[in-house]
Automatic annotation (TrEMBL):
Alphabetized SUPFAM superfamilies for the sequence: 6-phosphogluconate dehydrogenase C-terminal domain-like (SSF48179), NAD(P)-binding Rossmann-fold domains (SSF51735), UDP-glucose/GDP-mannose dehydrogenase C-terminal domain (SSF52413)
Family indicated by similarity: Belongs to the UDP-glucose/GDP-mannose dehydrogenase family.
Segments crossing the lipid bilayer: none
SMART domains noted in UniProt: UDPG_MGDP_dh_C
Signal peptide residue numbers: none
Protein name (record): Nucleotide sugar dehydrogenase
Domain UDP-glucose/GDP-mannose dehydrogenase C-terminal: from-to ranges: 334-435
Database matches in PANTHER family: UDP-N-ACETYL-D-MANNOSAMINE DEHYDROGENASE (PTHR43491)
NCBIfam families hit by this protein: NDP-sugDHase
Keyword Nucleotide-binding set for record: no
Sorted UniProt keywords: NAD, Oxidoreductase
Top-level lineage group: Bacteria
InterPro entries, sorted: 6-PGluconate_DH-like_C_sf, NAD(P)-bd_dom_sf, UDP-Glc/GDP-Man, UDP-Glc/GDP-Man_DH_C, UDP-Glc/GDP-Man_DH_C_sf, UDP-Glc/GDP-Man_DH_dimer, UDP-Glc/GDP-Man_DH_N, UDP_ManNAc/GlcNAc_DH
Amino acid sequence: MDGSDHPALWREGLIARLRLRTARIGVVGLGYAGLPLALRFAETGFAVEGFDIDPAKVAAIGAGRSPVHGIPDARVAESGMRAHATAEAAAGCDALVICVPTPIGTHKEPDLAAVRDTLAALASYLRPGQAIALESTTYPGTTEELVLPVLARAGLRVGEDAFVVYSPEREDPGNPDGTVARVPKLVGGATPACLAVGEALYAPVAGSLVPVSSLAVAELAKCYENVFRAVNIGLVNELKRIAHAMRLDVHEVIDAAATKPFGFMPFRPGPGLGGHCIPVDPYYLAWKARELGVPSDFVELAGRVNDAMPGYAVARLRDALDEHGVTLRGARILLLGLAYKPGVPDTRESPAVEIFRLLEERGAMLSYHDPLVPRFPATRRLQGTSPDLASVALEEEMVAAQDAVLLVTPQPGMNLELVRRAARLVVDTRGALRGAGPGVVVAA
């Protein structure tokens, strides 16, 4: 279709193809957010092209295997989607959805390299009649600052022959209710025409749509929903330190408060934040606020409190060892759980990795057990110096030989009864073994 003289034809033609499901969808980034979305598009009748710079993921999908924990191989094999390590096939896509990582740098600044690299790779294949949707979590203004100039340089007119959308991913790995098919989907467009295209793009796959007035509203809403959790987790992590000083069980306090049927939502303390959003979003929002000259005191304070939790866990472990006449340096310590939360193998920003680093600095003799993380991952926290360790089997003799067991993430199927029975000392950062006996120190 040549709609150059009638820009509305580009929009109407694309919307029609999306509604008829004859549009071809490209999803860039086939990880925890991108692969489920690509499969959802395929399962609702769209032809799907997937793109990822990781050749192992591309090969796995090409062989009908899932590279993401929790997604069955059969879903991938039956989807009919094709995966590519290069961007040439993007030219044939009517919509390109970007789901690449947006971590923070070493100084807590936004790291948008993956978004920039993706846009650079796609630039040669952009054409009239396409929609570009960004799903990666980021600060307000990113889509306008990064995506629109790329389209302009390609000679495309946003809202006329190209359509820009921001619709943040809301995947919750390991939670069957936290999928694109069940969760309301925010959609913001660069123009009203872009919003109309965005609604047509996501209506077939989302649980419901929540259109908003601009790209920045959708970006800020995504930041806010995760900062909300980070601030409240920071509050309860601070409360646990106060409760410990008062010799009170913070979980009993939370349970008591949670009986109020209005105006309260329970959050649980832990060893720190992990995952792809909650540890990152506060810093994205605080960075933007500083750029605007606006204070973000609550946001930054919550970040500092939560970042301090791995150190607090190590301090509680050291104190517990001291009471048993054992010094931390040279102590044999078993970490239980490297993933950032139960039920997934995801170690992104996991507090367990930071705890491992702190204990290694202090001279502890370390091993770990995580049935979903068979080898110690390469992580940003350890900056390429990850130890060459494999998960050890959880056996009674091995547990009994440790000076202490540090429970960081209780994975499904982890035999905590064996740990309680065999360990000399357990320091529990999640409250999973409350009331288990005198050998358990609850540091949560």
